[in-house]
Amino acid sequence: GPESVHEAASQVLALTPYFGFLVVFQCVYSQMGTSFVLQGCQMDLRFVEGSQLSAAQLNLFDCCVIMILIPLFDSKVFPWIEASGYKLTLLRKIGWGYVFAFMAMAVAALVEVVRKRSELLDAFSNCDPGLRMSALSIWWQVPQYMLVGIAEILIQVTGLDLFYSQAPNTMRSVCQSLNLITMTLGTMVSAGIQSIFASWFTNDLNQGLLEGIFGLYGVLVLLNLGWFIK
C-alpha cells in the first residue's frame, strides 16, 4: 500500500548520503582513463627493441588486482582481520577504501614529481610525436593502478553489498541504479575540476602541474573521509 511505498522510499532516502561519498571515489577512479594515461605518455614507454607500450595498457593492473584480491580478501584477509578482534563492518571497509584512494593519489603525485625531475630521453612518445619521454619507466605507475584497484574493492564492491542489503526488496533495483549514477556524477565532477584547472594540463606535462591535480584529488578524498567518519 501507499504506506509501505512511502516507508521504502524513506529507507532509500536515508542511504543517499552514502551515494554522495561514492562520487568522490569515482573522481579518483576516472583518473585511470585520463590523468594516469597522460602521465604515462611522457614516461619511458620502450618495451622491446623498436616498440613501445600504450600508456592505457596499465589499466590491466587494476583489473588483475580486482580479480585476484576479491577472493583473497574474502577467504583470507577479512577473516584474519576479524579474528584479530577488529570488527570489519561494511562502513569500515568503505572508510579504509578511501585511505587506499588517498594513497593512490599521493603515489601518483610523487611519481609525477620524480618524472619531471628525470632527464629527457632522445626518444619520442607514441602518444604524440612531438613529446620526448622521460627516463622514468612507465612501470612506476603500477602501484597507483593497484591502489585504485584495492580502493575499488573496498568502496565500490562493498557499496554494492551495502545498498543491496540495506535497501527494501522493492527498491533494490533503484538503489543499484543510483549507484551507477554516481559513476556518471564522478566523471562529471572530475571533468569540471579539470576544466577549472585546465592551465595545469599542458600538452607537455613538463610545463604543467599534474601533481597538483593529484594533490587536489587527495585533499578531496581526505575531506570526504572526514565527512564519512562523522
What is this structure, in a nutshell?
This protein is mainly α. The protein is built from 7 helices and 2 strands.
Give a written overview of the molecule:
The protein is built from seven helices and two strands, in the order ααααββααα. The protein is mostly helical. A hairpin with a 7-residue loop joins strand 1 and strand 2.
**Structural category:** mainly alpha
Largest sheet: 2 strands, antiparallel
With helices defined by DSSP (H or I, 4 residues minimum), what is the helix count?
7
Order of helices and strands: HHHHEEHHH
Shape: elongated
Count of individual beta strands: 2
The Rg value, from CA coordinates, equals: 20 Å
Instruction: Write out the strand line-up for the largest beta sheet, numbering strands in chain order.
Output: 1-2
The amount of helix comes to 55-70%
Could you tell me how far the N terminus lies from the C terminus, measured between alpha carbons in angstroms?
Answer: 35 Å
Proportion of strand residues: under 5%
Give the low-pLDDT segments: none
Mean pLDDT: 88
